[in-house]
Automatic annotation (TrEMBL):
Family under the similarity heading: Belongs to the SIMIBI class G3E GTPase family. UreG subfamily.
The protein's name: Urease accessory protein UreG
Name of encoding gene: ureG_1
SUPFAM superfamilies in the cross-refs: P-loop containing nucleoside triphosphate hydrolases
Keyword GTP-binding attributed: yes
GO biological process, one term: urea catabolic process
Keywords: Chaperone, GTP-binding, Nickel insertion, Nucleotide-binding
Stored Gene3D superfamilies: P-loop containing nucleotide triphosphate hydrolases
GO molecular function: GTP binding; GTPase activity; nickel cation binding
Pfam families, alphabetized: cobW
Length: 49
């Protein structure tokens, strides 16, 4: 079995979650296999943002 790290990122709309994930994956992709799993829903708040 392979070892792994699981990192959870949560926050409100516009908090910078995607930017953080993009920077983090760029930094670690050369050393580790990376996968991103999303659990996103589209809400009225998203439409208005």
């Amino acid at each position: 079995m392979r070892n792994y790290i699981k990192i959870g990122v949560a926050g409100p709309v516009g908090a910078g979650k995607t930017a953080l994930i993009e920077k983090l994956t760029r930094e670690i992709a050369n050393k580790y296999s990376v996968a991103v799993i999303t659990n996103d829903i589209y809400t009225q708040e998203d439409a208005e943002f």
